[in-house]
Amino acid sequence: MASRSSDGELITAVLRFFGYFAPRGSSGIGKGGQEALEVFIEHVKKGNVGGLAIDGPKGPPYVSKHGIAKAAARTGAPILLHIWYAKSNIRVNSWDRTIIPKPFSELVMIIDRKPIYVPANDSKEHLEQYRKIINTRLLHLTYQADQWFKLRDQYPDPRNIPVPQPVPAPYHPPNKRKNRG
Q1: How many other C-beta atoms can be found within 10 angstroms of the C-beta atom of residue 167?
Q2: N or C: which end of the chain has fewer CB within 10 A?
Q3: Is 5 part of a structural domain of the chain?
């Protein structure tokens, strides 16, 4: 899914170039998010693979929304969480602190070992229970990705990096701008 914003248009064009389909809509009243989620669900029900950025278009960052749990409950498709990080990057001063890898930067991608299956049930309590599970697992992976370049000699598989409990929220301040004056 991609928002109806100009950023969403750019993302949609890139995805279309590579042969992917992206329903358009965002969370919020009148932004088409529910309609886009329904299109996404139908797309997955037809046997297509789907993917979502699960902290939504406005955040807060690292907090998943109910849409991913709802889509999984309605389609029966598993959720396979993954995260990536670039050792050398530019961190955009945006709500989600998006990173852009610098050229030739080392990357790590962590794919969760266990898919999450959400039983069919549209109740708010059920979806909230799974949203919390998804969120905790995603924070777990984020912690491991953030630590991997420091600990990779000890842990060749980043999924083996021990994670403190409760899982700490990531802290990703924006890159400091150099005074060029």
Answers
A1: 17
A2: C
A3: no
